[in-house]
Amino acid sequence: MEKEKTSISISDNKLKRKKNFSEFEDEVLLKEIEQRKAKLYGKFSSTISKQVKDREWLQITAAVNKVATVVRSPMELKVRWKNISCKNKKILGEKMNMKSITKTGGGEAAEELTSAEKRVLGILGTTAISGIEGGFDSSTAGKILKKSFFLKFC
To answer: Which end of the chain has fewer beta carbons closer than 10 Å to its terminal beta carbon, N or C?
Structure first.
């Protein structure tokens, strides 16, 4: 007996694109991440492990899927959160940059943050946007060291 060969056309294998996230899905995603911030972004310890974080993402997924028109996976929600946070980091960085105000002429006044931006800022924290206060830029440290080395031995 010879097994029948089946052919699968390329068109059958194509994945269809899902609908975009709605504002309501994004709202629920932000609310759920706010509630679980400590477990999602806390340091690993005896009480917070990868399994705990994965469980939290499953609970977030269940909450979002209750209001979604399309079933979402935890990976899709993680990617969506990453996209939201990256976009907002850029916007918040521009709005929180006060250097232009201290220049001659005063610059333009900073725009007010929207409620969604305030929520993302609350989750990420100001350090994620503006960096560590009083810290130094390690990319310039090499140049300073090279210059001081050159001056010392030349």
So the answer is: N
User: Could you give the CA distance from residue 154 to residue 145 in angstroms, rounded to a whole number?
Assistant: 14
Q: Give the residue with greater pLDDT, 141 vs 93.
A: 93
For residue 29, what are the CA distances in angstroms to 7, 24, 32, 90?
A: 41, 9, 5, 20
CA distance 13 to 41: 37
Domain boundaries, the chain: 19-129
Would you say the pTM of this structure is higher than 0.85? no
- Sequence-separated contacts (24+) of 109-118 with Cβ below 8 Å: 116/26, 116/30, 116/88, 117/88, 117/91, 117/92
Of 31-45, 70-84, 111-125, 133-147, highest mean pLDDT: 70-84
Question: 3-state DSSP call for residue 141?
Answer: helix
